[in-house]
Every structure is written in structure tokens, then in C-alpha cells.
Design brief:
Helix content: 25-40%
Distance between the termini: 55 Å
CATH superfamily of the largest domain: Periplasmic binding protein-like II
CATH architecture of the largest domain: 3-Layer(aba) Sandwich
CATH class of the largest domain: Alpha Beta
């Protein structure tokens, strides 16, 4: 019998501070002659709206894109939409180069948090134009900077920890009581390594993203609520006890053999998640939108798929699901602001989001959508959303986040000490 979970449970998120992460692959809607691309607004002659994103991860994502285009076409039947897919691992570099050269698109897809906030100066504010959507959608803070709003959140993003119940049983662990403390997790990982052929966690760190998943995935069990809120508010000290502890735990987990071989040469999207799906790793810090989500893993693991909350590492912490606004389109061309606003509205069209929610495994920003599924991990994730906390890594500046990626790779293989890493990050945080 199916259990119906209503994502109005997410409505509490609108009052909780929120902010985002991304997907990957290709689709293009035919374009017209670029010479017809002059001018903005919706009047006068053939027009083209050029939009960049990182493509559709699967058939469900492609269907959502078609639904968005259809919703936009109802508003602007004479406007040609050209969607240009760029590779995710080079996306922001290519976008930055195009903007600098004056050849950027009219709109571009952004991850919430650092990626869009650090680029707010190149975007057109849409604060007033989207004000009527605020009560319907959750996750707005991820797309706000300096008192202005730069996009509407389409989906919520978060870092749930998924686990393979069959591998837990093989290791002699109780799959119905996953580790609740860091000590429990450490002993569980040792049992998995001793009793199975699997790694404890699947990890892809070729892009350096592993450390941000680790920081945000485990952070609520490491930092006190006061420290957590201060971090999100921009007050963080990398040399503090608990910030240093995060880096030490990351280095120690690697030294203890938790991860698959060659993690630093394994792409996170989607090679590392395929390791988990194939049953070659007992756990993974995954996602809840775009890819590596509950529905995708359920397709492979079925009833063996489990979800667990972050373990409590220190006393005085309050563990919480890390979740916030995920992705949204920002407007780069002031002359096409009106069209851009309507494209953003199309991306949060109720019917388009509702269809994608079940077909694609998305937890959407629309708090009026019902998620009707008997997949236990999905229901458990939705149940934890009202108490969720923002992702710690999205509060970092762009340069600071890039440095964290590099240091995360070096710490994983012992090429830098924790003390040196904290010192470098502390310097980056100052400026």
C-alpha cells in the first residue's frame, strides 16, 4: 500500500535558511539565424532566447525540459529557444570566458549558493518580478545576494547518506539501525572492509568535490548549532577545533581505507555513484535532485536501499539533513529580462515540476506538490526536510571553495598536512 507524503512538509523550509548542486548530458531546441537575435521584450519580429545549461541527465530530465519549453511557448509562441549544453566539469569556466568575451547566453543555469552568489554582479535581479512566487516555493536564500533575488529555485538539493542494506547484513551489521555516531560509523566501516569485498564509501574526487560532500554531509554532527549558524552567516574560523576536526576526519577516513581505489582519479558524476549502485560500496553521500538520488539508486538496489541521517560526532550537536535550494536560471541579458523572467517562471511550472518529481526522483521547490511513492528512502528524506540545515560548503567564497577542492585531493593521499590545509583555508577566508 503506497504511503502519500505531501511536500507541504517542505513548507517549513521557507522559514529555514536554505541555499544548492548540479547534474549532466545533451538536448538542443532548434535555433534561428543569430542575426535575428537582436532586441529584448516579446514584441516585434522573430526572436531567439539562448540558454546554457549542463544538459539532461536522463529521459525524465529531458521530459522536464520539454515541459518547460512548452510552458514557455504558451507565453511566447513566436520566440525560438536555443538550449546549449556545456560539459558540467568545465561549465563555469566556459561561461565565465563567454561572458568576459561578450558572447555569453541570455540565460544560464546555476547551482544555488556560492556559484550564483559569486556571479551576482553579472546577473539581472528579478526580486520584484518573482515576488508572487515566494510563498509557493522553498529554497530562495540560495539565489539571493545583497538583498536581491537572481533566480527561482526549481528543486531542493541536499546530501542524504544512502546505504546498501544487503552489504550491511553481509558485514554482520543491522540494516535497520544504521550508525548513529561517528564511532559507530567507524566500527561499521571496519566490519564492511573486513567481511565484504566492498569499500565502505563510494567516492569520486577527480574534480575535488568529495570534501564539500563530506563537510556538508557530516557537518551538523560536528559543529554545534551556534557554530553552524555562524558558518552559514559568513563567520567561520578554519583553525577552530571543529573545522580542523572535519579535515582530520577526512584525512583519517582515507588513511583507514574507507574509499574505493583511485578515488582522486574517479569522476564523481557519475562514476562514483555507479560504484554504489553496482553494490561495490556500502554507503555514499548522494544527492536528492538531478542525479544520484533515491529513485536512481532504487532502480538498482530496490529494497536494499537505505537512508541514514548524519552521525553525531561531538556532544552538543543537532544532526540535520543538509538541504537547500538547488538549481535555477539566471538572466545575463538585460535587454531580454522580460523573456528571461518568463523562462524562469516556466521552470517552476507546477505541472512540469510535479511530473518530474516522481519520474526523475526530484524533491521540488514547489511546496504544493504531493510526492506519492512507496520508496522508503524518499519518504524518510521528505520527513526530515522541515528540520534541515543549509549546506556548509555553499557559504564559502568561490576562491575558498576551489582551494578546498585542491586541498581535499591532497589530504586524501597525504600530500598536505591538516595543519597546513587549515592555515591555507584560513588565509583564503580572510580575503
Amino acid at each position: 500500500m503506497k504511503r502519500t507524503i505531501i511536500t507541504t512538509a517542505v513548507a517549513g523550509l521557507a522559514l529555514v535558511t536554505l541555499t544548492g548542486c548540479g547534474g549532466a548530458a545533451p538536448t538542443t531546441t532548434g535555433g534561428s539565424d543569430p542575426s535575428e537575435n537582436a532586441g529584448g521584450g516579446s514584441d516585434g519580429g522573430a526572436q531567439q532566447l539562448t540558454i546554457w545549461n549542463w544538459g539532461d541527465a536522463d529521459e525524465a530530465a529531458a521530459a522536464y525540459t520539454e515541459d518547460v519549453k512548452a510552458a514557455f511557448a504558451e507565453m511566447h509562441p513566436d520566440v525560438t529557444v536555443e538550449i546549449v549544453n556545456q560539459p558540467f566539469d568545465q561549465y563555469y569556466t566556459l561561461l565565465g570566458s563567454a561572458i568576459e568575451a561578450g558572447t555569453g547566453p541570455d540565460l544560464a543555469l546555476y547551482n544555488g549558493g556560492t556559484q550564483i552568489k559569486s556571479r551576482a554582479s553579472s546577473l539581472v535581479p528579478v526580486t520584484d518580478e518573482l515576488a508572487d512566487l515566494r510563498d509557493q516555493l522553498a529554497g530562495w536564500p540560495a539565489f539571493e545576494e545583497g538583498g536581491e533575488t537572481y533566480s527561482a529555485p526549481t528543486f531542493l538539493q541536499g546530501f542524504p547518506i544512502y546505504f546498501n542494506k544487503a552489504l550491511f547484513e553481509e558485514a554482520g551489521l543491522d540494516p535497520e539501525t544504521p550508525p548513529a555516531t561517528w564511532d559507530d560509523l567507524t566500527s561499521s566501516c571496519q566490519a564492511i572492509l573486513d567481511e565484504t569485498d566492498a569499500s565502505c564509501f563510494a567516492l569520486g574526487n577527480k574534480e575535488g568535490l568529495g570534501i564539500e560532500f563530506f563537510l556538508s554531509g557530516f557537518g551538523s554532527g560536528i559543529f554545534t548549532p551556534e557554530e553552524y549558524d555562524a558558518w552559514i552567516g559568513g563567520e567561520r574560523d578554519w583553525t577552530s577545533e571543529h573545522a580542523t576536526q572535519v579535515l582530520q576526519m577526512w584525512a583519517d577516513s582515507s588513511a583507514d581505507g574507507w574509499y574505493n581505489d583511485g578515488a582522486n582519479s574517479t569522476a564523481m558524476f557519475n562514476d562514483s555513484f555507479d560504484i554504489f549502485s553496482a553494490g561495490d560500496a556500502a554507503m555514499v553521500i548522494g544527492l536528492m535532485s538531478g542525479t544520484a538520488h533515491w529513485k536512481q539508486f532504487d532502480d538498482f538496489l530496490g529494497e536494499d536501499l537505505g537512508f541514514m541521517m548524519p552521525p553525531a560526532t561531538n556532544d552538543g550537536t543537532t544532526v540535520a539533513l543538509p538541504a537547500e535550494g538547488g538549481i535555477g536560471y539566471g538572466i545575463l541579458n538585460e535587454e531580454k529580462k522580460d523573456l528571461g523572467v518568463d523562462w524562469i517562471r516556466a521552470t517552476v511550472d507546477h505541472d512540469a515540476l510535479a511530473a518530474y518529481s516522481l519520474a526523475g526522483g526530484q524533491i521540488t521547490s514547489d511546496t504544493t506538490i504531493t510526492l506519492d511513492t512507496d520508496i522508503a528512502s524518499a519518504n524518510e528524506i521528505v520527513a526530515e526536510l522541515p528540520g534541515s540545515k543549509p549546506l556548509l560548503h555553499t557559504a564559502l567564497g568561490a576562491d575558498e571553495l576551489d582551494l578546498l577542492h585542491r586541498l581535499g585531493q591532497q589530504l586524501l593521499i597525504g600530500d598536505v598536512t591538516v595543519a597546513d590545509a587549515t592555515a591555507q583555508l584560513a588565509d583564503a577566508a580572510k580575503g
